Records
---
Amino acid sequence: MFKNHRITLLAVIILSLFSTVTYGASDYIDKSQITNGVIKINNNNNNVGAVRVSKGNISYDYILKGDETIPLQLGDGEYTILALESVGNNKFKQIAKETVTLKAKDPNKVYLQSIQMVNWNTDMNAIKKAKELTKNVKNDQEKVEIIYNYIVTNISYDKDKAKRVNSNYIPKIDETLKVQTGICYDYSSLFAAMTRSIGIPTKLVMGYKNDMDEYHAWNQVYLEDTQEWVNIDTTYDAGKRKSNPSIPMIKDIQDYKIEKEY
């Protein structure tokens, strides 16, 4: 329930590339964490305004505001990384390009990492809360249910924010925890950060739900106990729980249309 993500916008404006100046890719593209399924973009002097990550005919685009960790979530194989500098008027020029090869021992490891839209570290209050809530709990599904119930119970949907948020918005999980309100992007980022921090692979997913018109964000969680990915929608359930306290946590995947996942 928010404006279509900035990625759609960039997918258009990136076609406006009108010049190419390529420097050493290593100046901008750090591959040291590629075994975890991520790369880091070093935004030297804020030169890099955007990054495009492509594998085959699928591309993901990111607007940058500093150094960022970017996922390689499309499976093993070759990825093309373009670092782009903004030259104004929604136009970019290429300043670095590199092809990297991912050979992941664990394909789910990427969904444990801190990345641009699921940004977390152990000093954050939300991460401390996740550790506190799940202390001494050993079953993954029970841990997920505890964090799910905490978010659904304590975070309220912010309709005004949904109307005014811009397409380049990135959630801050501690801010969501503090104000206890947010849009679906805030809910799903907070949930993913909290579950990732306790070792449970979690995707932040974007697309549409069959009974909603608005662009939406939710999560998919990998349960080690049953070795399956399940759909969880904390935003939807936070709104529905008052009228239906027994609403199930795990949602039918057929009710959702996935466009992007991180």
---
Amino acid sequence: MSQSGAATRPPISRPLSFTGAVAAALALTGLGAGAPAAAQQIPPGFNGQPNDMRIGPSTRYATPDSRVRFTFDRSGRTALLQFEGESEVHVLRSVGASGGGELYRDEADQIRLRITPNGGVTIYTRLHRNGEAAGAEGAAPRLAPAALEVAQYQRRMAQLSAIAAQRLGRPITITAPREARGAEAGLIIDAAERAIAGLERAPPGVARITIQRAAEAQALRRGDELAIGVNPAHGYAGRPSTHTISNALADGLLSENRRLD
């Protein structure tokens, strides 16, 4: 999906709140999932080498031991990375590497990828802290939020409220735009998922997640509320990452403790 255009925004009278009871009922209707992106065709003559310049802008890679597989997508305005088996898509920023090539850092400012001048790829993870060469396995679908219909969006948001209550062991109310469709709906859903993941890393205290459209990605704790700002026009870069949300929760708790001292 191109991240340069914003999805059409329907008029909204007021936000919609999802709580555990409503979520449990709606969850029985089934998960609303967007249509999968069409797989890109592997270019003729592709030989799987990392320096093969015929590889498309979104490519699937693997380390020699096959313990790490990931998709690296440079088709949009920002570089994106998603590891196989993980739901989060990381937004990367590029900096020049010594000796040429590029380094890609994630939201936590950790080096995730290095691209050599001839196109070779090195991946950095907990399993490969010193880096491990990764070979291209083939072209991959672009990383983009799922395109949802309004009903799918509402069902999934209700399910997430129930999921949050189950994971966190307390009721969680999620307030989000009443209607959203297309990639915008998918991004708002992803923002809610990031918020839940961030809350799992934080001490108890938040009872509400509020998601609103904003000029840029934002995360802020205000008492028992986690406020999230999203800008669907920016794609995944338009929502805060799990790391950003975790930091916002920690900063908010620290501010509250200082006021109590």
---
Amino acid sequence: MLKVLKWIGIIILIVLVAVIAAVSIGLFVTRPSPPPKNSESAARIADGPYDVETSEYIWVDTTRSTPPNGEFEGAPDRTLPTRIWYPQGADGPAPLVIYSHGFRSDNVGGAYIAEFLASYGYVVAAPRFPLSNGMAPGGATISDVPSQPGDVSFVIDQMLALSGDDKPFSVTLDADRIGAIGLSLGGLTTTLTTFHPEWRDARIKAAVSMAGPADVFGPDFFTTTDAAYLVISGTEDAIVPHRTNAAPMPDKLSSGGLLEIEGGTHAGFADLMSGIPRLFGNPDALVCSITEFGTGGHPFDGMFGGPELGLISPDEFVPACSFELGEAISAGRQQMIAKLAIHALLESVFADTAETRSENEDFVIETLENDFPELTYLPATR
């Protein structure tokens, strides 16, 4: 009996070693190709000069409620657990960036972006929204999205109010240099917080929407502010289809533009997909195989207001995962692009000198697509 158990143990060990070896080889083979050697992108992709620290907060907005959701009876306030990333040892004024997570996601889903920005002196705060996160009471729902711009503004207030022992970083947050970025539903939240006539936060001076739904926005929606604005989207996005959401954006914008990633996907922007899940191929194919999406009417039509606020009813609605997927680039390469583009967009507004701001604007508009052949920058045409 002991010999049998011994052989079983040996077989299990061999299998484990084989699996670990196969995964390691797979991760090596599927690693993303870097930018061209000696290119500007290759120089910029390195982390900045600061080590990065994190802190956690649980902030409660007692002025606004959380509505009922399924078996959840609702709450008289809104609880926003928030993680912040900040540069260790930096001093002087620093820009603040708010990261908004996607549907059924969490506030650490964009950690690779937050860590990168913090290494260059930014402070990044990412709240977990009450009802759209993956562990929301009653189940994640999109119905609370109209409340999320208020959540972003509340977190900005809390961050600017940090002082004494509650403030873990040595920099001073610059209230005139505040940016917002978001992925998917978080990209939608970012766009609403930046431009919505009734919900926008005028303190936001630069914004990036990655794969955010946008087909309900008309051209007039984007006239409320001159904040710098960049849309980043992949042509193979199966969740928020590129053709009906991001592709029309340049014609709606009077400034800013669209960074189009040929072969880019929706889930490819998510931190998780650059690890072991990349071994399963197209990230969106994996998401579509394990997640159910509604195929009924447009989920956001009329949710944020009507024509008087710049909102439109889309002529066409393409449900998620309803079409054949094409060839996708690696999630790691897509995230490389996202980090470079977001940092440069922010620096084009927040950098100390006009020369540096201009250099970063040129990097977004021209250099990136020269260094990454899958990229096309499409400027605003309105």
---
Amino acid sequence: MDPSFVSEYQAEIFAYKREMEIKHLPDPTYMDRQVELSWHYRVRLIEWLVEVHDRFDLLQETMHLCINYLDRFLSKISIPIDQLQLAGTVALLLASKYEEIQSPAIAELSFLGGDAYPPSRIRQAEIGMLRALNYDMGAPGPMSFLRRISRVDDFDIETRTLAKYLVDVTLCDHRFIGVPSSMVAAVGYRASMLLLDSGEWTAQHEHYSGYAEYTLSAGINVLLTMLEQPSQTHQALFNKYKHEQFMESSTYVQSLGLAKLRSLHYSS
């Protein structure tokens, strides 16, 4: 349920979400224990997952939950490179079952994966991931936090749509793995405001996000750097967000040019 529908309980709901987001954080150093994997392979997998996610027109929340499951699983289990796509497929399947009214059919996911893993293998791996995650599937994502912050600006559609793009971009960089979803939402929203030149981070923004602006500066700088070269950091997301339904967010950012993006960096 969207907390905005039960306004009298919003403070308690978001306090609980802030507790749960910390509990469900993956280990940002897990790649040190993966023998065959690297952060490069993670980016390639996410690029593919974005395309599959888009193919089924799934919710944005589903994608973020998928990557949370994937990173938490890899925080606990070391896998060979030839099982990474299987882990991503299962993570998307489980996230879809949690968030969507109807999840993609396993046979379709198998087909989109080039039939590298038959449905029976995906079902078997699904059980393995559930056990590795201890059946604890309710990790809060950034979207509810983003909606809460956007109240300050009367849910301005331009700021919020661009922020959705920026929040998705954070999925592609491992430096955000250990960052709570509430902070990811605040980083994305403040970066959107900067890119649109839409004003200061006010006391209200700080209240509804839970973050002072200075605490967001490091994350915003990483995000702005990622936006400089989308073909190297998040090509699939760039292609998705260049369409009119997303207000051509990615092409708008690219149109600003490198000088503008770099001028928005916070000084250390």
